[in-house]
């Protein structure tokens, strides 16, 4: 996996929660730590974390996890600006042939799922391999380096899905039934801790 990078988006202000969801704990680790450690255990390098609204708090939490950190001062513009910054840093710091875009609030992303993204890409020789849940393609998503220029041009609220949709013929998918579980509200977090997965349906 030495040619695969990870870009973990962690710039948002968790407006619906009222505090940084990246720092909520689940099974002994914060959500951002879980995302980083999963990427690390999969063998991704480098691991780039894009911070923003809670830059100081998040950087303090992950300071010993050997990541590259970049601050998105324009985080209010939306996810596209974070993706663009992460890709720019990647191209300056490493020669990765592909990159996985991840979020910091999907607690059920595991190594086996990330491994499967790589396996499917190698098998089908597609530019993109996305996670499939709720009949939609989304993150985590693996992009070939041929997509980097398009990703770098993202701005505002445009996320990775814009590129996924524009490359329909060059996209494969991996089922990820728990991919729709992300933490946006206190009720989401309480349901996660209680194991109430029906809450997210």
Identify the strand order in the major beta sheet.
5-4-1-6-8-7-9
Oligomer: single chain
Strand content: 15-25%
In round numbers, the mean pLDDT is 94
Rounded Rg: 16 Å
Query: Could you name the ranges where pLDDT drops below 50 across 5 or more consecutive residues?
Result: none
Number of strands: 9
**What structural class results from the helix and strand content?**
alpha/beta
Helix content: 25-40%
Please report the distance between the alpha carbons of the first and last residues. 33 Å
Question: What global shape is seen?
Answer: globular
Q: How do the SSEs run, as a string of H and E? A: EEEHEHEHEHEEHHEH
Q: Main sheet, how many strands, which sense, barrel?
A: 7 strands, mixed
Count of separate DSSP helical elements: 7
Structure description:
The chain is of the alpha/beta class. Helix content is 35%, strand content 23%. It contains 7 helices and 9 strands; from the N terminus they run βββαβαβαβαββααβα. It has helices at residues 31-42, 55-62, 79-93, 111-124, 148-152, 160-166, 186-194, and strands at residues 4-10, 25-26, 29-30, 47-51, 68-71, 98-103, 128-133, 136-144, 171-175. The strands form 2 sheets. A 7-stranded mixed sheet has the order 5-4-1-6-8-7-9, sandwiched between helices. Helix 1 (31-42) crosses helix 4. The protein is globular and about 40 Å long.
């Amino acid at each position: 996996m030495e040619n695969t990078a990870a870009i973990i988006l962690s710039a948002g202000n968790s407006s619906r929660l009222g505090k940084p969801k990246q720092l909520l704990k689940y099974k002994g680790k914060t959500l951002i730590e879980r995302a980083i450690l999963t990427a690390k255990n999969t063998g991704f390098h480098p691991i780039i974390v894009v911070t923003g609204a809670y830059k100081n708090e998040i950087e303090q939490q992950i300071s010993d996890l050997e990541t590259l950190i970049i601050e998105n001062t324009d985080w209010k513009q939306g996810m596209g600006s974070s993706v663009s910054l992460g890709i720019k840093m990647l191209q300056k710091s490493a020669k990765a042939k592909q990159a996985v875009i991840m979020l910091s609030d999907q607690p059920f992303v595991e190594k086996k799922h990330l491994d499967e993204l790589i396996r499917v890409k190698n098998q089908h020789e597609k530019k993109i391999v996305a996670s499939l849940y709720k009949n939609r393609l989304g993150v985590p998503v693996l992009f070939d380096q041929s997509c980097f220029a398009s990703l770098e041009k993202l701005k505002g609220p445009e996320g990775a899905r814009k590129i996924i949709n524009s490359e329909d013929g060059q996209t494969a998918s991996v089922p990820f039934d728990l991919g729709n579980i992300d933490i946006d509200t206190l009720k989401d977090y309480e349901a996660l801790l209680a194991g109430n997965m029906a809450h997210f349906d």
